[in-house]
Specification:
It is a multi-pass membrane protein. Keywords: Cell membrane, Membrane, Transmembrane, Transmembrane helix. InterPro entries: MMPL_dom (IPR004869), Mycobact_MmpL (IPR050545), SSD (IPR000731). The chain has about 800 residues and is of the alpha+beta class. Among the domains are: about 210 residues, Multidrug efflux transporter AcrB transmembrane domain (Multidrug efflux transporter AcrB transmembrane fold), CATH 1.20.1640; about 100 residues, Alpha-Beta Plaits, CATH 3.30.70. The protein contains 33 helices and 13 strands. Strands 2, 3, 4, 5, 6 and 7 form a six-stranded antiparallel beta sheet that branches. Helix 3 runs antiparallel to helix 9 and helix 29 packs across helix 32. The longest helix is centred in the first third of the chain and has 41 residues. The radius of gyration is 36 Å and the shape is elongated. It starts with a helix and ends with a helix.
Length: about 800
């Protein structure tokens, strides 16, 4: 009677606990939704900046300042090129388009030709003319070849196209200054008319416009505003459809990446959902499991997004692409729950209590695998880890809190699916020693063949790659701009401004020779515009050959008035007091435009001394680099000169992370063996760890046979193969699996199918990094599915 009474009161108590759990789950879900809606209203939480996903380099203070300065200088810059047959019409259209863009709130600055007034440049340099020489003038004077300069002046004086005037000759008889001014434009193939930069593109006139966006090009709103402004302006000036528009810059790469990511999130997410729906309906033939599966997935995505935003404040669009794979993983809880309930007349709470220990351990291993990703100093993978780990916790909480109250209906299940699971398991139950030896031999041969062909590739550009059309268009624009400005640059450092300028001057001939050798197309060196004090003093001394004892001869040779000799001599003597000073230079428009290339020492702060803060530094921009190693070799012998290659440095860092991740995988396998050995025999624990280890080995081997290079994203995927795949071993190692092996096989088969589908779809991504990640996980989970039933066989033989 007491037993009967206990049974009568047990069910209401159980229902009460299930109801309380459901209320708690609803409160948590409501709080998450309210927080999410509030956050979306207050700010934009979607991040599209690919740079935000990259590892942070450990740089010295001066290099970090140089990178920040260059990124600020080039940030949000778009290059627009109007091409047309009619030169005048193209220039007119370019001026009209500049006016339209300047009036748009999407852009903060629009320019084309030089904004510097030639008269201002003249006023800056002419008073210091006795301290300034071109490289060729300096070489001639160092060799004492004044006669060559006299002959050049005679040609300029008597040429029909000469530019000399009596006023200029009275100040500069050998016309050295005009040659100096012309030298500032060296290496540029562009002309300028009516304030518009002009080039030639396929025989057509090309008018070049530079537009700086007001907001970050990685903001979806800014992308839309800037693109609409560009398209609208072009449509207004291209009424007769006689013009074409070429575009280059981060805006168009960011826009393409955003559109591609959105399309992939939609496609991959939709196909994953469709696959899950199909699996649930075919397996359980009931709408209730589909409803609970949908509830699980919804709560997983909500918790994943919330978890990521809480930690990082932003949710990157590429994280969402990676995160679509969460659909295939989070649904595993529903599959295991309903596989256990099929053809059983028991409460949902009892079913849950039977599988909860294994599911909890499975959650722990998966979350630990993602946690390992989170500890890598790679912001992109940290976000993916937080997203997927948070999503799995959300799915687990839904199972624990909501299923006992909502998932109590009896499930008949599909006999065809059950028979399929039994058929899949049957060969493993009959496996013998010979088959094990043969299987090991096959794995060894295939593994050795594939691993021998495996190569590594750690280029950062595998994270995102523009379409062929976009890259070809950008290449045409860069060619017009003499290579433009590359991400790599030279950093020159010294203890003083004077020493810095002298080192820049020593660098100048090396870069000039590199251009002649076609190692690069152009460069921008501050010393070309601001010579050092020592150089100016030397140039003044060399010009004594002109304004000293030979001055009378030069005046007579050129047929000038003899009275000029005394006047020129006096001006030369007075000119010793008028060198070009750095302070005066940087107050001019030209100096202000070049000031970002100079890194002055920071003010001394005794409380927070910063390493390298008292160094002087200068950035030398490089354009159209054709052979970066050769450029680096050419400058490496110069003191204080280093090549800063952020792309190369991050790529090298990714290579180090790849190796570290593979060692981390080995450590995870060792730790897992120790944990499993606490509950199971050592032989069974070793077998449980061997399944994901062999799956990883076979995945790498197949990648080698397919010719796919090994990257950091392959290694990270293998870490998740362990975290997800070891779950299958855990379920087959349960004591209940001896009698209900077909149920475990069904749950594992459904889980592996959904997971492989999710990651297999990622392999279709146009983004190489996502493709590598998805392909490796799909292969790894597939091999784990094939190997995990061996645990069932092994356990039966042990018992």
């Amino acid at each position: 009677m007491a037993l009967g009474g206990s049974k009568i009161t047990d069910k209401p108590q159980t229902d009460c606990r299930a109801g309380l759990r459901l209320v708690l789950w609803l409160l948590l879900l409501a709080a998450a939704v309210i927080f999410g809606v509030k956050t979306l209203k207050e700010r934009d939480v979607v991040e599209t900046d690919i740079l935000a996903m990259l590892p942070h380099l450990q740089q010295d203070a001066l290099t970090s300042r140089a990178l920040d300065s260059l990124e600020t200088r080039l940030a949000n810059e778009s290059y627009l090129v109007l091409t047309g047959e009619d030169k005048a019409a193209t220039i007119k259209a370019a001026r009209g388009m500049m006016a339209e863009l300047a009036n748009s709130p999407a852009f903060s600055a629009v320019r084309s030709g030089s904004e510097l007034d030639p008269k201002d440049i003249y006023r800056l340099y002419f008073p210091a003319r006795f301290h300034l020489l071109t490289e060729s003038q300096r070489t001639l004077l160092e060799k004492g070849k004044v006669d060559v300069l006299i002959k050049q002046a005679e040609i300029a004086l008597y040429s029909a196209f000469g530019f000399a005037s009596s006023e200029l000759i009275s100040e500069d008889p050998l016309l050295l200054f005009p040659a100096l001014m012309q030298g500032f434009g060296k290496g540029h193939r562009l002309g300028e008319e009516e304030g518009i930069l002009l080039g030639n593109s396929g025989g057509q006139t090309a008018a070049i416009i530079m537009a700086k966006g007001k907001d970050s090009v990685f903001s979806p709103a800014a992308q839309e505003a800037q693109l609409n402004a560009i398209n609208s302006a072009f449509d207004k000036v291209n009424q007769g459809n006689q013009l074409s528009l070429l575009k280059a810059g981060a805006l168009f790469h960011a826009l393409e990446a955003t559109q591609s990511a959105k399309a992939e999130v939609s496609l991959i997410g939709s196909l994953s959902l469709a696959g899950v729906v199909l699996l649930v309906l075919l397996s359980f033939r009931s709408l209730m499991p589909l409803l609970m599966a949908s509830l699980t997935l919804a709560s997983a995505m909500v918790s994943a997004s919330l978890f990521t935003i809480l930690i990082f404040g932003k949710l990157h669009l590429l994280t969402l692409v990676f995160g679509t794979s969460l659909i295939g993983i989070a649904i595993d809880y529903s599959f295991h729950f309903y596989a256990e309930r099929m053809d059983r007349n028991e409460s949902a709470g009892k079913t849950l209590s039977r599988i909860l220990p294994a599911l909890t351990l499975a959650l722990a291993t998966s979350v630990l695998a993602y946690l390992a990703l989170g500890f890598t100093p790679f912001p992109g993978m940290q976000q993916v880890a937080a997203f997927c780990g948070g999503g799995l916790i959300g799915a687990y909480l839904t199972l624990y809190l909501a299923y006992p109250a909502l998932a109590g209906s009896r499930i008949q299940g599909s006999s065809a699916v059950i028979n399929l699971a039994s058929s899949f398991l049957a060969p493993f139950e009959a496996i013998g020693p010979k088959a094990v030896v043969l299987g090991n031999l096959i794995i060894f041969v295939v593994g050795a063949a594939g691993l021998g062909k495996l190569s590594s590739h750690d280029d950062i550009r595998s994270l995102q790659q523009g379409s062929d059309a976009l890259m070809a268009e950008e290449a045409r624009v860069r060619n017009l701009l003499s290579g433009g400005v590359d991400n790599q640059f030279l950093l020159v450092r010294a203890d003083s401004m004077e020493a810095l300028l002298m080192r820049l001057e020593a660098l100048a001939p090396v870069l000039t020779q590199a251009e002649k050798d076609q190692l690069l197309q152009s460069h921008v060196n501050l010393a070309d515009y601001l010579p050092s004090g020592a150089r100016q003093l030397e140039d003044y001394r060399l010009q004594r050959q002109i304004y000293g004892p030979k001055l009378g001869y030069i005046v007579a040779r050129l047929g000038l008035d003899a009275e000029l000799e005394a006047d020129l001599s006096a001006k030369y003597q007075a000119g010793v007091q008028s060198p070009l000073a750095a302070e005066a230079f940087f107050t001019t428009a030209l100096g202000a435009s070049l000031k970002p290339l100079l890194l002055e020492p920071k003010a001394k702060d005794a409380k927070a001394p910063e390493s390298g803060a008292q160094e002087w530094g200068a950035i030398v921009l490089l354009g159209g680099i054709q052979d970066l190693p050769a450029v680096n070799e050419a400058v490496s012998a110069l003191p204080g000169v280093t090549l800063v290659d952020k792309v190369g440095d991050i790529s090298a860092l990714m290579g180090n992370y790849r190796q570290t991740t593979l060692w981390l995988l080995a450590l995870a396998l060792f730790i897992a063996f120790g944990v499993f050995a606490l509950r199971h025999s050592r032989k069974l624990a070793a077998a449980m760890v061997a399944v994901p280890a062999l799956a990883a080995l076979l995945s790498l081997s197949l990648l080698g046979l397919l010719g796919s290079p090994l990257t950091l994203f392959h290694a990270l995927a293998l870490l998740l193969v362990f975290g997800i795949g070891v779950d299958y071993s855990l379920f087959f190692a349960r004591d209940e699996s001896r009698e209900d092996g077909h149920r475990v096989m069904l749950a594992v088969l459904l889980s592996a199918t959904s997971t492989t589908l999710a990651f297999g779809l990622l392999a279709l991504s146009n983004t190489p990094a996502i493709h590598y990640f998805g392909l490796t996980l799909a292969l790894g989970i597939g091999f784990t599915l094939l190997l995990s039933p061996l645990i069932h066989t092994f356990k039966r033989k042990l018992n």
